[in-house]
Amino acid sequence: MSLLFRKPTIFNAKNVLLRQNDVQILLLTSKNFSAVPTIYDGESDPAPKFFSSNVQVLLKRLTRPDFNKVFRKRTNSGFPVLKTPQYKFLTTEQLEAEVAKSRARADQLLQMPPVVKVQTHIKEVLSRDPALIGFDTAKYMFTDITLGVDNQHRIIMERDTDGVLQSCDPDVRKRLNQIYFPIKGRKIKEPVMFTDPERFNSLLDREQYEFVLDRACIQYEPDEPSYQKITSVAYQHVDSRKNYGLLRSTRHFGPLTFYLTWHLSMEGLLLELLQNNVIREAVLLVALRQEVHGDVANGSAAQGLVAEIMNTPIQLSKPESLTEEDIQLDTKCIDCIEQYISANSSMKSQQELALQGFREFYQQLIDLSRGVRKAHGNA
Amino acid sequence: MAFSLNLRSIILNRIIRSDVRFGFRAFSDAADGAAEGEEQDNGAAVDPTKDRTKVIPLETSMKYMQSKAYNQTYGESPVWFLYRRNHKGGFAPRKTRKSCVRNGMISTGNPCPICRDEYLVLHHQNTNLLEQFISEHTGQVLDAFKTGLCQKKHKELLVAIERAWDQGYLTYDVPFREYDYSLYNKNNETTKNKV
Ligand SMILES: [Zn+2]
């Protein structure tokens, strides 16, 4: 795990100046926020954990997809004229088919950007030809433009002026790939909003997280150091301001949660879940930590609850009435979270307070729904 | 005799002066102080509402966009909303005029929405103004045919918007990128064709 990571705290100016030498591009400081960009480096590789089906399922559920937000009006179709909407009468079966279609489309739109280890570049020398020294004053680049080969595996070689034929740097590769097989929206020159810390900081302060992360996805590859630095700073900003709601039902919530869990700083997110009375997702978060680190005291209990929670529908709003099964499940969840807080949490007092608040809210809800059922005469 | 001599010298003087003035300005739009002073010497009064030689700072323009005066003039609608082009016939020409400003003066009776209000400055930080020229439905820059901007200002607008997008002053919906997980999930890959 990266040792660079530090919880967002207030550095003094001297500290910042000292650190600025260590970190190449971005060290962001503003009145109440400063973050040290981190990358997924070191021994452990996050990719196997991230791509494992258990973690994927948990992350997707924690995203809490709200179709109103997933299918919000977007202006990125690229057409100068919009398509006219169609209105149709449908039978129930046809309607179900359409709903299934839009679910699949939502899954596609919510595909999480992969979380992988930062790339390491090994220079591979194919041949050294001293006879070519001084042949030309410029390098020669060779790109295999066969169709059907992905950008990562494309053969791109450079012939240096000193006659060495070798593989080239990642950014040269990226540029050539972009020239021959352009990705829509990617610029050959890095956008100023990423290179200038002041502009980047102002975007974060304006809470345009989705724009920043979307654009980072387009501009960089997931295994590039600059991508991981930019996203890590954005995630830390979200965490420090508790703006999780802004990224929910976007494709970036999964990587955000994964990032926080990976660096063991998901207490803020857990607190937010408790304060918003979504106890089941809090359990899922604990289970996620167990999957990633395996250091939760009652981890197996949480993992056991996951299957039960997955069967229940997503809670987009506050529940209005509860069935007995709901009550049983939620009671188990409360126990699970209580044990987690007492054993593992680093934000005990606040989380306990939030849990207490939830208990009171939940007791009221139980009384209400039982009372309603009694009044209807089927209790 | 003396009178006619005097008249001749005046006329000659005028011709030379005007020559100098045209020579000066044929190559530059922004008239400088010397030319302006000369004009006042000649007695031709400069209409302050038509003078575009003064450079309005960006801060003033941004303040103006928030001000009561702006609201009174334009209300909630974009600055180009009530503008109508003058043209003969039933159909407006596809292209708008090249420029509304010549020799540092408004040279037309119906200047375009940006030229007519000197406090509207096209700059990448002036996002309140730039937003009005981006379609909320398609996210693209509105055509000059719709907004009525002269070609010169329209070009400036395109540059300012591109800068604003690049520097993050304006946000937009980024094209969607679909990832091929099999490229990143190395462990799952059984047939890895290394090249
Ligand atoms: Zn004009």
From TrEMBL, chain A:
Q: Which domain of life is it from?
A: Eukaryota
InterPro entries, per database record: Ribosomal_mS22
Q: Which Pfam families match?
A: MRP-S22
Full protein name? 28S ribosomal protein S22, mitochondrial
From TrEMBL, chain B:
Q: Which UniProt keywords apply?
A: Mitochondrion, Phosphoprotein, Ribonucleoprotein, Ribosomal protein, Transit peptide
* InterPro entries in the cross-refs: MRPS18B, Ribosomal_bS18, Ribosomal_bS18_sf
Q: Report the superkingdom from the record.
A: Eukaryota
Where in the cell?
A: Mitochondrion
Family statement drawn from the similarity comment of this UniProt entry? Belongs to the bacterial ribosomal protein bS18 family. Mitochondrion-specific ribosomal protein mS40 subfamily.
Q: Which named protein is this?
A: Small ribosomal subunit protein mS40
Which organism is this protein's natural source?
Answer: Plutella xylostella
